[in-house]
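Write out this protein's structure.
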Amino acid sequence: MKYFATGTLLEGFQRSVDILMTNKKNIVPPLLQEDLEHVLTHTKPLWEQVRGGRIFVTGATGFFGTWLLETFLYANDQLKLGAELVGLSRNSAAFAAKAPHIVNHPAITMHAGDVRDFIFPNPTFTIRDGDLSQYTRPQNDFLNHSCMKHTPHDFKNDFETKSSQNLIHSNSESRVGKFSHVIHAGTTSSAPVPPLEMLETITRGTRRALDFAVACEAKRFLFVSSGAVYGDARSEQHHFSEEDHAAPDPMNSASAYGEGKRFAELLCRLYHDNHQLETTIARCFAFVGPHLPLNAHFAIGNFLRDALEKKPIVIKSDGQSQRSYLYAADLMIWLWTILFKGQPCRPYNVGSEHALTIKQLAEKVHDTLQLKEKVQIGTGGKTSCYVPDTTRAHKELGLQEWVTIEESVRKCFDWAAEIT
């Protein structure tokens, strides 16, 4: 495992070591072998694009990011690609403590920083034996085209190492400069943050990731967008198509996420036009699988949490709103396929077309897991439908939904049960 250090605080270094050496109870298990093999089976020919290459991933320790890292490692090992992946995270030390089977792999390098102003990876120094006396903050060798003002970042929690004996930073020329593919998966959708901060993180973060892609001479760029670009979920049954040009209400502060993603998609178009960067776009809807946050605002995650805690599943509304859920392994097939062969600046909806009401979903979780407590259903609430039309992805990229909702629920529940 390697780290790109982006700070000079000894206390941060020591704190990170303490986290890594003592916090073992929250270690997560690897993904299921059958899921990893499933992803590889449906993407195998595509991986030749990165043979001997390097991939940079923002949001590398989130739900999407963790799956991206682990499915990359499986393909890299099975196909002997000799590829490398650098993952950006605000707190790489915590992730190293949680998922050592990922970060200890020699093909993975963690780069600490905020997506809005991270330092472009530029390995020029080595630290051994915990000696920081010779450390100087690396200078950015890349031309930065960003017009935003960068502010100092608090690196106390970002400067980390597995142990005081490990190599932190390689000065090998093979690790300087070039990346063939960039995936921008950094987002704030699963955490409650003020709308202005959310908007800033999405827009500045995307600009920074695009600047980096240009600077490192990447050929392909995948932006993980959202179905939120279409605006509020409809009251009537309607599957959103890429041809729909509805938009979020700019006078509603809750639109910050969707409007941010819309603007970020426009940035992708502009960087394609101005820099010939092949920017691909995945408009993601709703998903389920290992690593899904169970305490966030995702109904299926909340239902699985209730099941794990042996509590009754509770729906606060009448449960008539409609959603659909794609399993995370299928999601990875879609994302890797869009990155490698999606048409630039042609968005693809990503998700399941199999709509369920929230009531039906709760009952599906209940029946699949054979829970004893009955589902508790409330009354009222705004009825909406947030389901994608994925015809474009089916016809142009040959993508489909392989894993059923029942299998998805069971796999996610069993995996989460191992760590609770």
